[in-house]
Amino acid sequence: MVALGTKPLTYKSAREIAKMREAGLVVWLAHQRVAAMIGPGVTTAEINRVVRQTFLDYQATPLFLNYPSDSPRPFPAETCISVNEQVVHGIPNQRKLKSGDVVKVDTGCSIGGWCGDAAVTHAIGGIPADVQKLLTVTRGALDAAIAALQHCATWSEVTQQMEAIVEPHGFGIIESLVGHGIGRQLHEPPEVPNYFADDWQQDFEIRPGLVLAIEPMINLGKKDVQESRDGWTIVTRDRSFSAHFEHTVALTADGPVRLTSEPTEAEWNARQWPDWLPPRDQWLRW
Predict the structure, then answer these.
(1) Which among 89, 99, 125, 198 could disulfide-bond with 232, CB atoms 3.0 to 4.6 Å apart, if both were Cys?
(2) For 190, phi and psi rounded to 5 degrees?
């Protein structure tokens, strides 16, 4: 988790949100490209190369590559790719995916100095029913949080909506990893937890101009996680499977907008799209 300290929360103008949308569309394209090639036998390094090429195609700056931390080395790739019990921050390598795996693909880029960040969990081939339920519930928690921005006054109210989706299934909501504000920097205030706590001291107001990377991270088992020896990869302590979905979301005067989601009709008609993009009915949607 990135410590955001006590820097003030900033709200974005409509013009700034529009600039962030440019980065968000490229992140969306990267995820579409991954979805078209991911499957059994594909290595996580190959997935990362696809993301890298997408960013190169659009002259976007990768946000994760060489990201610093307390680890002995900065993050070595454009994409965090985490398999099964790996929650987040997995380093791409020559591991080949197999049927039954769940793969979390998390990436971000900036264009013109404005950032976008999104994550998707993919099921590789057939997965057990309980794992599929985990993916469905985690995505549902993200959807609930985005919808709640329309009517909740504070983030703590939103987290209660998220917990209402997750807790009936007995899944573990990770508390040591949170979402974040985003804008000129990948990680900006505020911290954006996915759980409710009565003693949480960093609640914040929800109002137009707020831009958040909302990213529920939910475990099939208990909530506890730990860092791996590589200094980056976070895994579930009980080695249960984990799921992760994320969008960069702006709250506008007209309601919440997913900045890392598919193009609107106007956006689609206003620009040229790559030949490799599949038909709309085959787009990855989350």
Answers:
(1) 89
(2) -95, 170
Domains of the chain are 14-268 (3.90.230.10)
| Closest by CA position to 243, among listed 153, 146, 127, 164 | 127
Count of residues for the chain? 286
DSSP 230: T
pTM of the model: 0.95
Q: Tell me which residue of 255, 182, 238, 191 sits closest to 212, measured CA to CA.
A: 182
The SS3 assignment for 274 reads coil
Reported as half-sphere exposure (CB side, CA atoms, 13 A), residue 30 has a value of 38
The CA distance from 246 to 119, in Å, is: 5
Amino acid, res. 26: V
Distance CA 257, CA 147 (A): 10
Q: Which two tokens stand for residue 170?
A: 């007995």
Contacts of 91 (CB under 8 A, 6+ apart): 75, 76, 77, 80, 81, 230, 232, 233
* pLDDT tens column, 148-201: 999 999 999 999 999 999 999 999 999 999 999 999 999 999 999 999 988 777
Dist. CA 219–CA 193, nearest whole Å: 15
**DSSP symbols for 32-87:** HHHHHH-STT-BHHHHHHHHHHHHHHTTPEESSTT---SSSS---SSEEEEETTEE
Residue 196 CA, distance from chain mean position = 20
Which residues touch 264 (CB under 8 Å, ≥6 apart)? none
For residues 172 and 217, what is the distance between their CA atoms, to the nearest angstrom? 9
